[in-house]
């Protein structure tokens, strides 16, 4: 009988040892999983920060190009406006027809707008108005059919692929 008790004791000790090792292994795996999740979260944050920075740099470059375009256009339009103003003024004085000065008014508005766009505060006023719209009229910014979702994009992709395969036949 002692032989029967001894193996039970041994088995019992082994089970305890296995349970302890299983617990320690499980605890170690949990710690590794937690570290891996933290690492993945850190990487996804870095990736998002990089994407935001890249998109902002692209936006800044596009805005700089738009301002540069306005300044370049202003040089040409300013030259045209100056020549037209001098020509119309000389023509109005020589012919004694003040009506010839009429085109200077709308051309002057265009010139003033371009000046404001290229060197003035137009961009700041536009930004303020945009912020106001976003704060108090946000419903005007809604896209038709709402924001695209993964499912809506996938549905469109599948429809395009099935149409393309149908047209190929």
Layout of helices and strands:
Elements (H helix, E strand, L loop, with lengths): L1 H94 L8 H16 L2 H15 L13 H19 L1
Describe the structure in your own words:
The chain has about 170 residues and is mainly alpha-helical. It has 4 helices and no strands. Helix 1 (about 1-95) runs antiparallel to helix 2 (about 105-120). About 0% of the residues are buried. Residues about 1-15 have low confidence and may be disordered.
Order of helices and strands: HHHH
- Helix content, binned percent: over 70%
Distance between the termini: 83 Å
Radius of gyration: 37 Å
Main sheet record: none
What is the general shape? elongated
Number of strands: 0
Count of DSSP-assigned helices: 4
pLDDT average, as an integer? 87
Oligomer: single chain
Q: pLDDT below 50 for ≥5 consecutive residues: which ranges?
A: 1-13
Instruction: Decide which structural class fits the backbone.
Output: mainly alpha
Residue fraction in strands: under 5%
